[in-house]
Design brief:
Largest sheet: none
Helix content: 10-25%
Structural class: mainly alpha
Strand content: under 5%
Order of helices and strands: HHHHHHHHHHHHHHH
Number of strands: 0
Number of helices: 15
Shape: rod-shaped
Radius of gyration: 60 Å
Oligomer: single chain
Distance between the termini: 196 Å
Length: 478
């Protein structure tokens, strides 16, 4: 009879399988698992101190150092981090190399970039340059896809020794091969720390960078100025942004005004032409009106001195003062900048007011030879006394006359002119021309002077020659 089968297996097959498994296990035990290895481990020693007592993976000797058993909760990434404690620290720091990488290239997938069993001298890092997120490390490869000769960049072109290290000198070395003059000038202006300003996207390249998108637009003569003339000693991006934007920040040392006009140069100057300045003098305390508007600046601002320039008329015009200081220094009371000769003077501000016919009298009729101070103010000084009453009424002409008209004089005769009730008496009845100050009552009254004197003395009146003193109305009972 044939052998009884157990399902699809025979007893002999089961025995043969068991023997084969035992032989494989024995060989694996004797070879240390080498029979399952896809290749030798890397023997390249790192620069760091030994980790876990070994300098390279080849010294591990035991697969379980990296490969966890299927039933173990630990993963291969856990085994990696157990030795590489420095990477553990980086994963907690988003600014570090490993901490900035996204999953699945990050914390739990070391094998995505680091591979083994490729030979004793093989590199432990293998990157897909097309998909590796290099910009997450602060430097984009957008402008570094190909070299100047058209060949594509490799990691080793910039990371000559280790992928985790970058020598800044490599930037200068590479760029000097095809733009030596520019690099020499650029390094002289901004230093050798290229990464302090450049992040690989060429944002400062002439073809891409537009200064006019920033608060300080380049116009006029500013367009041709070298960057380093404004961005002096700039060594970082912050230094570039911190360049002064006020005119005085660059031009203060050339200020011909020595700070007299402050620091807002744009009030007068433009970037198109610094020398063709325009100044709105009406913004200053002294406004330019009339003839002042066409006066050359240096006529008032001698030797380019602006601050403290005198503003009184007399400060500039005193040498031309036809009045010789007679009217003081406030020329604006009469003169205007529109026309110096067409002066107007409010005589009513003076001690002698102009009224009546005086208003139309030419100034030089009273102010002979332009002499103003000390001009006489009495009527008689200008108006000779007529013969009809010369010396009779003194010099106070205003007692009878007005400035409205000289002819229509009025005199307040306190003594009644119709004395005696015979109508208005002529002046000569009482006054003997031309002396109108004296009068007599004896021309009408036939008084005896001796009897009048005796009678008044009897009454105790000593002054009896001035009749109107006691008889103001001419009546006896006054």
């Amino acid at each position: 009879m044939g052998m009884q089968r157990i399902g699809c297996l025979t007893p002999l097959g089961l025995i043969a399988g068991a023997v084969a498994s035992a032989l494989v296990a024995s060989v694996a035990m004797i070879s240390g698992g080498a029979m399952f290895s896809p290749g030798p481990l890397s023997a390249v020693a790192g620069d760091a101190l030994p980790l876990g007592g070994v300098k390279s993976h080849a010294e591990l000797g035991d697969c379980t150092a990296c490969h966890a058993a299927p039933w173990d909760s630990a993963t291969m990434a856990d085994r990696c981090l157990a030795c590489h404690t420095d990477i553990q620290a980086q994963l907690r720091d988003p600014q570090s190399l490993h901490g900035s990488l996204p999953d699945p290239v990050g914390a739990r997938a070391c094998r995505a970039c680091h591979t083994e069993h490729k030979g004793a001298q093989a590199s432990l890092t293998s990157l897909d340059e097309r998909s590796f997120p290099h910009d997450r490390l602060g430097f984009s490869l957008a402008a570094h896809r190909t070299m100047k000769n058209g060949q594509p960049f490799t990691c080793a072109d910039c990371h000559a020794k280790r992928l985790s290290q970058f020598d800044l000198a490599q930037c200068e070395t590479c760029h000097r091969t095809y733009q030596a003059d520019f690099v020499a000038s650029h390094v002289n202006d901004y230093g050798k720390d290229c990464l302090s300003c450049h992040d690989g996207v060429d944002r400062f390249a002439k073809a891409r960078f537009d200064h006019n998108t920033f608060p300080f637009a380049l116009v006029g003569k500013h367009i041709g100025v070298k960057c380093s003339q404004c961005h002096v000693n700039a060594r970082t991006l912050a230094d570039l942004k911190g360049a002064p934007q006020a005119c005085a920040g660059c031009h203060g040392k050339d200020d011909a005004h020595k700070g007299a006009f402050g620091t807002d140069c744009a009030q007068c100057h433009t970037p198109e032409d610094w020398k063709k300045a325009t100044f709105d003098h009406n913004l200053a305390a002294f406004k330019l009106t009339g003839k002042h508007a066409s006066v050359a600046c240096d006529k008032c601002h001698v030797n380019n001195v602006f601050k403290g320039t005198p503003q009184a008329c007399a400060d500039c015009h005193s040498k031309d003062d036809a009045h010789k200081g007679a009217f003081g220094t406030d020329c604006a009371k009469c003169h205007t900048p529109e026309d110096w000769k067409k002066a107007t003077f409010d005589h009513n501000l003076a001690a002698f007011k102009l009224t009546g016919a005086h208003v139309n009298v030419a100034c030089d009729k009273c102010h002979v030879n332009n002499v103003f101070k000390g001009t006489p103010q009495t009527c008689a000084a200008c108006h000779p006394e007529p013969d009809v009453h010369k010396g009779a009424f003194g010099t106070d002409c205003a007692q009878c006359h007005t400035t409205t008209t000289w002819q229509g004089a009025t005199f307040n005769h306190t003594f009644p002119l119709d004395h005696g009730r015979q109508g208005t008496q002529p002046c000569s009845r009482c006054h003997t021309p031309p002396n109108y100050k004296a009068y007599t009552c004896y021309n009408c009254h036939e008084h005896d002077p001796a009897r009048i004197a005796s009678r008044h003395r009897e009454e105790g009146i000593a002054q009896f020659d001035d009749c109107v003193r006691c008889h103001p109305t001419g009546r006896g009972g006054d």
